[in-house]
User: Fold this.
Amino acid sequence: MTQFPVVQTGENVTRQVLADHPDLMVVAFSFGAVGAVGALHNHPHVQSTYVQSGRFRFSVDGTETEVGPGDSFVVPSNAVHGCVCLEPGRLVDCFTPRRDDFL
Assistant:
């Protein structure tokens, strides 16, 4: 198994690839402070997000939703999405196909 590095992606935000295959990738994002931002973006991959801990306000194509531990949802391909951390925590995202830009 490959051990992937922790990468700083923003102020108080890190990501670590947990597992990858050309068809699927699992990535953990850690948010260390209230107000930390996962900037709005989009990509061709379908994304499933599981909230392992913390609270977040997500925007997906302009619709805002607050999520907390145990919540999960799917972000469709090319949907503009991002989040703001309301309580420090960790998100686990799965992408299909793999996000080669994270390798």
Remarks:
- Residues 6-21+33-102 form a domain with the Jelly Rolls fold (CATH 2.60.120.10).
- The radius of gyration is 13 Å.
- The chain is about 0% helix and 65% strand.
- The CA atoms of residues 49 and 73 lie 6 Å apart.
